Amino acid sequence: MTVLCWDGAMLAADSLFSYTENATRAFLGPKIKIYGKRAVASAGVVLEGEQLEQFEEWIMADMPVDQSPTGIDDDFSGIVLTQTDAHALYVKKFEDTTIVASYRLRARQSVGNSAASDYANALMDTGHNARDAVEKTCDYSLLCGIPVNSITRHDLKNMPDDYIADWEDFNPFDILKKTVKK
User: Fold this and answer.
1) φ, ψ dihedrals at 69, nearest 5°
2) Would you give the DSSP letter of residue 148?
3) β-bridge mates for residue 86, sequence order
4) Hey, how many other C-beta atoms are within 10 angstroms of the C-beta on 68?
5) What angle do CA 123, 75, 150 make, to 5 degrees?
6) In contact, 78 and 42? CB cutoff 8 Å
7) 62 or 13, greater pLDDT
């Protein structure tokens, strides 16, 4: 399960993935992935193999509506951050039809598990930034987990156009912990 937050300046995501419908298999990992000068935070199903390749090609092509990725399983959602805006992204299947909906985010919003998203939205409405909202939501919901990763539009500016990688925050205190002798 997931909570992803956008506060107008920062995109933040928890790190708990569940692999099965009833969340019996879970693991931790970064949910924000960089595609050139775009960051994508995903919730719902874990994309692998051909699904992931199709999705990545679509993102790198600036998400053309007429070429929506049809091989993605139901219940995939996310937030796509570019240098100029942020979009919510939802994929739903109805029988043989796949619907991909995307809309521009103008204000604070969270995506993911409904109770966790509601909690995160309330935190952002009371002045917390996206990262704080995700961290506090991880304390509230067993379906979300730390560590939290976050990225801003400024972080995307210096990314090479063809760069594809998972995004994890760099924490300078991790280096200090390793170099300070007791």
Assistant:
1) -70, 120
2) P
3) 81
4) 16
5) 40
6) yes
7) 13
Work out the average pLDDT over 122-143.
Answer: 94
Place of tokens 């995700």: 134
pLDDT digits (tens, 9 = 90+) for 156-175: 888 888 888 888 864 444 43
Rounded to an integer, what distance in angstroms lies between the CA atom of residue 82 and that of residue 158?
12
In this structure, what token pair is assigned to residue 74?
């139901």
pTM of the model: 0.81
Structure tokens, 23 = 């969340």
pLDDT reading at 180 higher than 70:
no
Could you tell me which residues are beta bridge partners of residue 27? 17
Cβ-Cβ contacts under 8 Å for 157 (sequence gap 6 or more): 37, 83
Among 106, 96, 114, which residue's Cα sits nearest to residue 2? 114
